[in-house]
Amino acid sequence: MTKSLLYAAALAAGSLYASSAPASEWGCQVLLCVSGNWQATPSCHPPMYRLIAAMKVPGFSWPTCPNANSSAARKEVYEACPEGWTVGYSDVGHEGNRSVPNKCEKRENLCFNDRTGNKPTFNPIANRRDGDSCEKTISMSRPVRSKPWYIDYSDAKGLRQRAWFNLNI
């Protein structure tokens, strides 16, 4: 995958050192750099520092690489919840508005039958109008991505790929 991307991006980008590169060439440079470890690649510092500075300017538009059919970058701060868990929210405001989806939740059965299967040995909620309940919603913090940004692009074979990266300097 990386070789295909490097080949496509290298053809599209030309020289990484071009200071007055057109927007599409700059977008290809950015794509090439984010597909690897740009922080450890000195030739990636100029286009990436230019990108980080440009992001602070009102009206910023993410540079794309037409030759690789790249998307503008998107950001997903949180990893998916583990299997069996659903996305939850730490705060729900007025009118049911949800805040940041930063929790993982699941329903847990807290009643455990004895070995004969006769009755629950633990029942945390008793004397409710709807009867005894052994279910409780548990939650945990949703895992945070170390690389929250991504760009989708087409590799040299035309297959869609996704490159995850961070913008930490």
Mean pLDDT: 78
Using only C-alpha atoms, the radius of gyration works out to 24 Å
- Number of structurally distinct domains: 2
The SSE string, one letter per element, is HHHEEEEEE
Cα(first) to Cα(last) distance is: 25 Å
User: Low-confidence parts lasting 5 or more residues at pLDDT below 50?
Assistant: 1-21, 120-131
Individual helix count: 3
Order of strands across the biggest sheet? 1-5-6
Helical content (DSSP H or I, runs of 4+): 10-25%
User: What's the story with the biggest beta sheet?
Assistant: 3 strands, antiparallel
* Principal-axis shape: elongated
Structural class: alpha+beta
Please give the number of β-strands: 6
Strand content: 15-25%
Chart the SSEs and their pairings.
Layout: H1 2-13, H2 23-34, H3 45-54, E1 74-75, E2 86-88, E3 103-109, E4 135-141, E5 149-154, E6 160-165
Antiparallel strand pairs: 1-5, 2-3, 3-4, 5-6
Structure description:
This protein is an alpha+beta fold and 169 residues long. The protein has two domains: 2-77 and 146-165, no CATH class; 86-141, no CATH class. Helix content is 20%, strand content 18%. The chain has a three-stranded antiparallel beta sheet, with no helix packed on it. Helix 1 runs antiparallel to helix 2 (23-34). The longest helix is centred in the N-terminal third of the chain and has 12 residues, at 2-13. The chain is elongated and about 60 Å long. It starts with a helix and ends with a strand.
Briefly, what is this?
With 169 residues, this protein is an alpha+beta fold. Helix content is 20%, strand content 18%. It is built from 3 helices and 6 strands, in the order H-H-H-E-E-E-E-E-E.
